[in-house]
């Protein structure tokens, strides 16, 4: 346990090695170092899990302290970690899925001249995310939080020669900064209120000092949630994530699955005690989550870029996770986070494999019929789609269903209805993607069609492993069976206080089995309906979507242009700010500040030139100066 | 606080004895063997420095308890305050010796006198830090100063060096006159020259006697000269410019710290009752010292001279902390002197390395292109200059931070504002060197100075200095804890 620091340190070491000497190392080494670092980190994490499981369920809480970072008066921040079931799940997801993505990248990025730079950033990304999830206080968490922000900027804009890529990188960074600002204010308010940033101390103090619904806790939780909105791409700060696909596809997989976007969900779950004390914030989180889930799913319906569809699906699935947290089902939220990591990484890597095969083509209207040419990609991609659509017995079924079930159990009928509808949309757009990409006639440009090839082994093996996980990942949490809630039982101690506050038992009691069964049936039925609808539209009658688009031209246009949110932000936020900055630059900065600075500089230089003449170099002048000074000083002292 | 009294205690002066012994050994080696074993001078001296530091650190109760040990009829005191300053001196001297090795070879001046003078000068500083009696302090001042006069003129074939020594000697004796006269007046009023006794007397009799105040004023002049405060600073630029580069680094750090050590001990321990009389004067001197030092530094072309003015300005910052007094003020003085020792000697290490035989390459314009020819040295130089300018994450930044926050807490808001503005001005001339190193190209590639005084020892000195500067900036709490232990004896 004391050696938990090696887990983030390994990828960081990889970053240093590849970052400093990567260009001089043979390519093979670079990949080996990066993947090796992640692989070892995963092994270390597994060992940590093993040690953790030896403890009694309530004793699974360690805070190894490594170093006192800041001490000022009563304020002390340690660089120390918090190892408990919640962070353990995150560590395993980040290192495990991250490792597979690293391996996949060896094949995917093979031709890229920026190979060492890519792996250095990738390692740094994983390291920052690990720091984020392992921190035992908000400040160290914030370091990781900013670290992933930085890495996402670097990796989204990895192909910085491309205007759109560097723009997307900037967009991700700036939108995240807005969220970070809220997060930082939340940290300040926390420190101001509790005088500490340590999670354990904050929660203990909050439980003693504040009644449920206290305005201060509501303020803190809402501000922290603003940070989560940015990082986890929720309305209204979701706009960066769809653009983030400008980066290399494995980076998208990393951002969407293992690192970055899960940070917000994790943070909310980590602060479950605070949220449980603030029912208003819980409601707000649930509402934002549910709205985002449906809103993003509706945009996903009509997009034609394979990665863009997946990006909106991530935004939507993150909404489900927040919905789960917002209704108090933290276990369900984290469960969905984990299964989503498996199948979303799979889908992105599968999409990457398709794009790789088609020499960079991303438009699904120009694909089709790839089933026979890319059998491995096809099979694994379909499994990922079944998982995200929530078909039994795939991972997504168990986790999404638990969120829906808990939403209903907590009495949120409207949210349940919306979320269920969103699930139908998910199934529809995912299978639209599958049908358009892999079935039907080939619509490829003949030049690209000529080169189509299945992925190399470094890419195919991660796909298969992730596909297996997408299938089996949900089996750790099977409802209705005695001993089926392995995952929940593991996490329950973390959310113990929150559940007690909410008077809610996180599924520990048994609601009627028939109800659970019936609701499962409903979920699967909705998902199947979505799939069949997609089948009817895109397989049987390919002209049908075109007719529908013409018929509902206005609705189609709104969806296709993503509700014009980007244009709206551009007009109301970006352009006015740019203009204000430009005029400030012209008037205040150039004229006033520069003038003052230059003026001061030249004034001091001329003064200096005069004053230095006193220094004549003659000893008697110096002695005179001492004497004069002495006389003045004596007069001064004696006269006063 | 516990006081232990004894009369003659060799253990109390053991570090000083070691240094004196080593100084004599070095002289004897040359006297007996001629120049045959001249490589050994530096090793013997360094050994002495190390031994003295070891004795300071391991003396009973060092940095653990607040025992104040008086000896030699109350003329000598060993407390954490003196230990802390002694360590600063030893670090300064040790680093200087490492820097000087190859320099002295290049100048063909590898003689034992240099080392003996260095060690005796250090003994003088240590006497100043440990003396609990005014005459003993004066003896320390003289031992230090006379060694320095000789060191300033050590490269006797260079006119500049001779000029520096003569000027320093004349003006220094002048200042010593003020100092001893001030001591006499204080003795005349209080009937004692022992610091604790003076404090006791003043606590009973009350302050206010004009003669006493005059004595205090004369002490301010004397220490003002030793710390190179305006208007008693004029010797400094000429001496710093003329003295050999390693000696300049040496005397800008240790002796200045020693002067502050004695200054603090006399004023905070013996004369706190006179505080109302000195506040305005020191306030004015601090402002003048910071401002004049920084402003004149702006147009200097000679880097040694520039750093001389910078050194004047730094004395001004320390005076700000002196005024703030109290726990915070004293913390910042001690912290700053330690940081200043590392950063200034570090900078002079690089200057020495590049100065060339006869010190021909000491202009700012000579540094053009150094960033590419000597990347490590240039990086270290930039670090030291950034630290001098007070830019994080360096010790110089934390030091200034402590000083100005202490000043603000004590209500010296204007002083803090003037100080901060001054350090903004100073950034200009420090960065000039960095700009020259990295962003300006020399006319010819050969124009970039060679690293003529480069030696493994010098590299070690640069690394130690860089480590000191960075660790003071990054892990300040460790040092602050040590510093706080150091002055509690007279608060």
Strand order of the largest sheet of chain B: 1-2-3
Helix content of chain A: over 70%
Q: How many discrete structural domains of chain B?
A: 1
User: Could you give the count of β-strands of chain A?
Assistant: 2
**Secondary-structure element order of chain B, N to C:** EHHEEHHHHHHHHHHHHHHHHH
Q: What's the main sheet of chain A like?
A: 2 strands, antiparallel
Tell me the span between the first and last alpha carbons of chain B: 10 Å
Helices and strands, with pairings:
The complex is a heterodimer of chains A (640) and B (491).
Chain A: H1 6-21, H2 27-54, E1 65-72, E2 75-80, H3 85-108, H4 115-134, H5 138-156, H6 163-194, H7 199-209, H8 215-231, H9 240-243, H10 249-258, H11 262-270, H12 272-277, H13 279-300, H14 306-326, H15 330-357, H16 375-389, H17 395-409, H18 413-438, H19 446-451, H20 457-472, H21 486-491, H22 496-502, H23 513-540, H24 543-551, H25 553-560, H26 565-611, H27 619-639
Antiparallel strand pairs in A: 1-2
Helix pairs in contact in A: 1-2, 1-4, 2-3, 2-4, 3-4, 3-10, 3-15, 3-20, 4-5, 5-6, 6-8, 8-11, 8-13, 10-15, 11-14, 11-15, 13-14, 13-18, 14-15, 14-17, 14-18, 15-16, 15-17, 15-20, 16-18, 16-20, 17-18, 17-23, 18-23, 24-25
Chain B: E1 2-5, H1 14-33, H2 39-58, E2 67-71, E3 76-78, H3 80-106, H4 112-130, H5 134-152, H6 159-190, H7 195-205, H8 210-226, H9 235-242, H10 245-270, H11 275-297, H12 303-324, H13 326-355, H14 370-373, H15 375-389, H16 395-409, H17 413-439, H18 456-474, H19 476-487
Parallel strand pairs in B: 1-2
Antiparallel strand pairs in B: 2-3
Helix pairs in contact in B: 1-2, 1-4, 2-3, 2-4, 3-4, 3-10, 3-13, 3-18, 3-19, 4-5, 4-10, 5-6, 5-10, 6-8, 6-9, 7-10, 8-10, 9-10, 9-12, 10-12, 10-13, 11-12, 11-17, 12-13, 12-16, 12-17, 13-15, 13-16, 13-18, 13-19, 15-17, 15-18, 16-17, 16-18
